[in-house]
Design goal:
mainly alpha, 15 helices, single chain, MetI-like fold
Length: about 325
């Protein structure tokens, strides 16, 4: 009886020992590494596939198209003969490309300067505590939230030479009330820049306001105790602390401004007399108005190259700031 009981008690002990041995059995490092690698690829595969389909393929196709004689008939025949650098030569020899490039530079620089300066001034202003601070900051975000095409249509009505609100207001205060804001070759680009500044101010203000919140107040207080004026404190203490944020704002602003299309189309459609033609609108005009898809691809590739250069610069700045 006792031997039976002992053997019965021994069986669970043996089973436990076997289980313990199974748990302690070493795992093959290669198989574990293989499983980790497969799991990692499983997580990133959807993003890789998405990027390849919706970014990689269009980019490669656009580059190839710039070396082909791609016409509307290609959609039916599937034939796009290789024509070497003909598309590139045609674009660079066209005087409109140089004009569009110069106007893109003016538009981008003017927009960035206006957006940044006004956005920074508003960000500094809203760091002060006063009634309705939060409500006013929320209202300033409205231009950023409205679709750009809608903003363009509204401002086109405001800038109308005959029935626009702006000219009517200027006339009531004794100023010339017949300014051709969008129909004059000398005023159209300025008007488009002003509208784009209005749209971009909220973005600059929000990012810079967040950066100002991270500046230690002790530094400003120490500068004030040393007798520094408010402007000297801002220039010598606050601005250097804002340098990383300023870089991000300007780079992102550049990348979104240099390729702008919908706002210009809604306001002037590139006119009058191509005075508001930019690289973005030139790409559209070549591809979908003149149906010269090869020339449109060339200008598009130039825009992609410009944006890529600044994207690399942005990534390098972020990496250096993180060290």
């Amino acid at each position: 009886m006792s031997s039976t009981t002992a053997s019965a008690a021994a069986l669970p002990a043996d089973a436990k020992a076997a289980d313990a041995g199974a748990v302690k059995k070493p795992v093959n490092p290669r198989s574990a590494k293989r499983r980790r690698t497969l799991a990692q690829w499983g997580f990133i595969a959807p993003a890789v596939i998405f990027m390849a389909l919706f970014f990689g393929y269009p980019l490669v196709r656009n580059i190839v198209m710039s070396f082909e004689d791609y016409s509307p008939s290609t959609f039916f025949t599937g034939e796009a003969p290789f024509n070497g650098l003909d598309n590139w030569n045609n674009v660079f020899s066209d005087g409109l490309f140089g004009k569009a490039l110069w106007q893109t530079i003016l538009f981008t620089v003017g927009s960035l300067l206006g957006q940044f300066c006004i956005g920074l001034a508003l960000a500094v202003f809203f760091t002060r505590r006063f009634p309705l601070n939060g409500i006013l900051r929320s209202l300033i975000l409205l231009p950023w939230l409205v679709p750009m095409v809608v903003s363009g249509i509204v401002w086109r009505r405001i800038f109308d030479q005959d029935t626009g609100v702006l000219n009517s207001f200027l006339g009531t205060i004794g100023l010339p009330g017949d300014t051709p804001w969008l129909t004059s070759t000398s005023m159209a680009l300025i008007s488009v820049i002003l509208v784009n500044i209005w749209i971009g101010i909220p973005f600059n203000m929000v990012i810079l306001y967040g950066g100002l919140q991270e500046v230690p107040k002790e530094l400003n207080e120490a500068a004030a105790l040393d007798g520094a004026s408010a402007w000297r404190t801002f220039r010598s203490v606050t601005l250097p602390m804002l340098k990383p944020v300023i870089t991000v704002v300007l780079v992102l602003g550049f990348m979104s401004t240099v390729k702008i299309l919908d706002l210009v189309l809604a306001l002037t459609d590139g006119g009058p007399a191509d005075s508001t033609q930019t690289l973005g609108t030139l790409t559209y005009q070549n591809s979908f108005v003149q149906m010269d898809f090869g020339a449109g691809a060339v200008v598009g590739n130039i825009l992609i190259l410009i944006s890529a250069v600044f994207a690399v610069f942005y990534l390098r700045v972020n990496r250096n700031e993180g060290k």
